[in-house]
């Protein structure tokens, strides 16, 4: 609720961080949606990893050379861990492991859940397998480790066989030559050949003594005692935090893309005019006139607005004032009627001109008194209770200039351009809109139209808007009414404030003929 001084303190807080938090908290449903999505994601990960177990087996890859040799390791005998890593993930090793597990048809499927890594600066291969049960994870990891070692041993033995076969063929050829030379009675050169045969036989013996095993299992896989991955509590906590961050980001995006003016600063920036008051939402079920006929904070808010218009806070005093809304809404009528009563309460002879040409007009919805003989023809007197009386004229034809405060209630400026003819003939324009409902683009258009017509905006009167829930908006949407065959009610209560949907008569050019 507003007060005569400092009505918008909560909107003018210099702490920008606090303003940003307030802006984001307007989208509490969006933040809650992000939290729910995060929790659902955490719960999904918990369910997916609840039955997953990872077991690890490690193998030390041995170099293909004699470890007791006094010679250095040849360059071609060094172990290429990158090559061994690719071999460990090959289809041949997978087929060996699948055969050992008695699942020869699932070789490719086993590779899907296998991960083989090589720790930095080591000759160790680490086999990690993730399975549905602890026992299966350990069995498959050990099977792959052993399959790799068997495959490497077979390749080493095949290399030894190839090398010894070639050497033995050379030995056989030299032996035949020595025998042939001795049978021919010539022994010259046989000593050198026999020495060469001895060297080749020594090489064959050395090659056969090589260790052809692929390596050693330095760590056998054991059935894990708990599922792999973070604990369910951690996943839910991460989901909660991630969902909160997601909700904040979505809320920030909504606030950045929101076309409606959600704060006093945005309204003032769009109109380049001060906000004179934040009023309660129009009461759709109650009477238009509240000042002087009912007590409470609502009437006090209109009195505070009248005080500011009369010259409080060094603002423009009331002379000829046009009250207009960007688009048709009941808020403009409520402000004009109660503002007239509040000015009359201070002793002014107030004239309220209803230039909206709406049927039925204001006289049918306000308490009237018997007209005095001094009241001009076409005007009626409204009984404002303890606030006194003010004069109401259903249209602006014949209104001449005088010194009494005059309020002109005009049609919505963005729907009827007739109000522009009056804007340049009055002392000021009071714009009425719903905080959090009126669009910034509409306010900018109103400012441009009034400025181009030669008028002056003295201020803005905002009122709170209670937006319906999501379910209500869906039920009242156009496509739902078309689907159900319903027609819109004569009085609608929606996001654009409470609008009295009555037929509007066309406004003639002479309706707003006002002379100073």
Which helices and strands occur, and which strands form pairs?
Blueprint: H1 16-25, H2 28-49, E1 53-61, H3 81-88, H4 91-100, H5 107-112, E2 114-117, E3 124-131, H6 134-183, H7 190-208, E4 215-219, H8 232-257, H9 264-271, E5 275-279, H10 297-309, E6 320-324, H11 330-345, E7 351-354, E8 368-369, E9 380-383, E10 389-393, E11 406-409, H12 419-423, E12 428-435, H13 440-452, E13 457-464, H14 470-475, H15 478-484, E14 491-494, E15 497-500
Written overview of the protein:
With 516 residues, this protein is α/β, with parallel strands linked by helices. It contains 15 helices and 15 strands. The chain has helices at 16-25, 28-49, 81-88, 91-100, 107-112, 134-183, 190-208, 232-257, 264-271, 297-309, 330-345, 419-423, 440-452, 470-475, 478-484, and strands at 53-61, 114-117, 124-131, 215-219, 275-279, 320-324, 351-354, 368-369, 380-383, 389-393, 406-409, 428-435, 457-464, 491-494, 497-500. Strands 5-13-12-6-11-7-10-9-8 form a nine-stranded mixed beta sheet, sandwiched between helices. Strand 2 (114-117) and strand 3 (124-131) form a beta hairpin. Helix 2 (28-49) packs antiparallel against helix 8 (232-257), helix 9 runs parallel beside helix 13 (440-452) and helix 10 packs across helix 11 (330-345). The chain is rod-shaped, with a radius of gyration of 47 Å. The chain starts with 15 loop residues before the first helix and ends in a 16-residue tail after the last strand. Residues 1-13, 66-76 and 488-516 have low confidence and may be disordered.
